[in-house]
Design brief:
Rossmann fold, 5-stranded parallel sheet, 19 strands, 24% strand, globular
């Protein structure tokens, strides 16, 4: 980050105190940081704090007579290499999504032509509100990247998703985005989320997968310079900006979507939790309550990861294994039986990590090696896993061991 010009926007919320630590971390990395505060932010942290940490005056007003032509929003927007808003409140999120510009920060966002990253912080109910989800999705479509929010205890005493990402997480994310791509131009297909196998018009068989790991991998791959296709089951996550998103529902639909484009992929990462079985016959009408006992006849779904790995000209193929016990044995067995290049295994069913969590840990295996990735947030974990994948992929390409040469 040496001499990188980072413009930090701070909105009004308890999490504003974390922004001071973020400035300190960025400065430690060599970045030149300028701070813009909203009027509400001034109620939580004083400008003097940020001035002392950044070494620059803090900007708080839209019309600054001290600026040439009183155009501080234009000058700051042109100065910045990247705009980070942390924390961003629900109010500012709504302003940005709808193009409103009634203060310096919202006006600066409209004038900025550099990349924009935002770290939301708000009550868990506010984050889950449909209108907030719509605003977040709109900003994602406009190319804004989200860091967090994270789950945990909030200042109001409630638990849930809405905490601002930790300064270390934001700093690491910025550092990763400013580094040269490990997978520049490499074509990657990633599957994410669960599948749903319909029983009748209102019921289905599914699992606890949230899709967070697959979506984090897609973002990490985009940051690494890859050309990413994300094939996703039903999730409540915004589409990663810069990817081609294909939404599916059933395992058969996911299989068809994967096989339709796999010839172009150089790396395939099967992070989706695909249902192993589906009903032989989905009922056209809602199944009514009958006797105390009942049965549903099931049939196997196609094995997507095995199908990809068995191709004559296969991509570098990475599988996932989610197990409740004997993790290493099951993962290594799957690596060998399905002829994978690599497998990432995680334990599920415990108190922390795994399905529907913001954190996870992985044991990663390949034919002649292994590595443990400790418990951390999924965006950070995804970057660590992508580094391992990139190293093995480039190593096999160099040795000619990979089944598919690059175009």
């Amino acid at each position: 980050m040496i001499n990188k010009k980072i413009l930090l926007g701070v909105c009004g919320g308890v999490a504003a105190y974390k922004s001071a630590e973020l400035v300190r971390l960025l400065k430690k990395r060599g970045a030149d940081v300028r701070v813009v505060m909203t009027g509400s932010a001034l109620q939580f942290v004083t400008p003097l704090t940020f001035q002392a940490l950044s070494g620059h005056p803090v900007h708080t007003t839209l019309l600054d007579a001290g600026q040439e032509q009183a155009m501080s929003h234009i000058h700051l927007a042109r100065w910045a290499d990247i705009l980070v808003i942390a924390p961003v409140t629900a109010n500012t999120l709504a302003k940005l999504a709808n193009g409103l510009a009634d203060d310096l920060l919202s006006t600066l966002y409209l004038a900025a032509e550099c990349p924009v990253l935002i770290a939301p912080a708000m009550n868990q109910a506010m984050w889950r509100k449909a209108v907030t989800c719509e605003n977040a999705a709109r900003l994602q479509r406009h190319g804004v990247e989200f860091i967090g929010p994270e789950a945990g205890e909030q200042a109001c005493g409630e638990l849930g998703l809405g905490r601002m990402a930790e300064p270390e997480t934001i700093c690491a994310r910025l550092l990763a985005g400013l580094q040269p791509g490990l997978l520049q131009g490499v074509r990657i297909t990633i599957t994410a989320g669960p599948t749903r196998e319909p029983l009748d018009p209102v019921r289905f068989i599914s699992n606890r997968s949230s899709g967070k790991m697959g979506y984090a991998l897609a973002l990490a791959a985009i940051d690494a310079g890859a050309d990413v296709t994300l094939i996703s089951g039903p999730v409540c996550l915004p589409a990663p900006a810069g990817s081609r998103l294909v939404m599916v529902e059933t395992a058969q639909q996911m299989y068809d979507a994967v096989m339709a484009g796999i010839a172009q992929a150089e790396i395939f990462i099967g992070a989706a939790a695909v249902a192993d079985y589906r009903p032989v016959q989905a009922q056209a009408r809602k199944i009514k309550k009958g006797s105390d006992a009942g049965s549903i006849e099931l049939q196997k779904n196609p094995d997507i990861i095995a199908s990809v790995a068995s191709l004559l000209s296969r991509p570098f193929t990475v599988g996932f294994a989610a197990e409740t016990d004997d993790l290493e044995a099951y993962a290594i067995g799957k690596l060998r039986s399905k002829n994978l290049h690599m497998i990432a295994a995680n334990r599920v069913g415990g108190m922390e990590g795994g399905f529907d969590s913001d954190r996870n840990a992985l044991q990663v295996f390949w034919p002649d090696g292994r590595q443990t990735l400790s418990m951390t947030d999924k965006p950070h974990l995804a970057r660590q896993l992508l580094e391992l994948i990139a190293g093995q992929f480039h190593g096999q390409n160099a040795s000619g061991a990979n089944g598919r040469p690059r175009a």
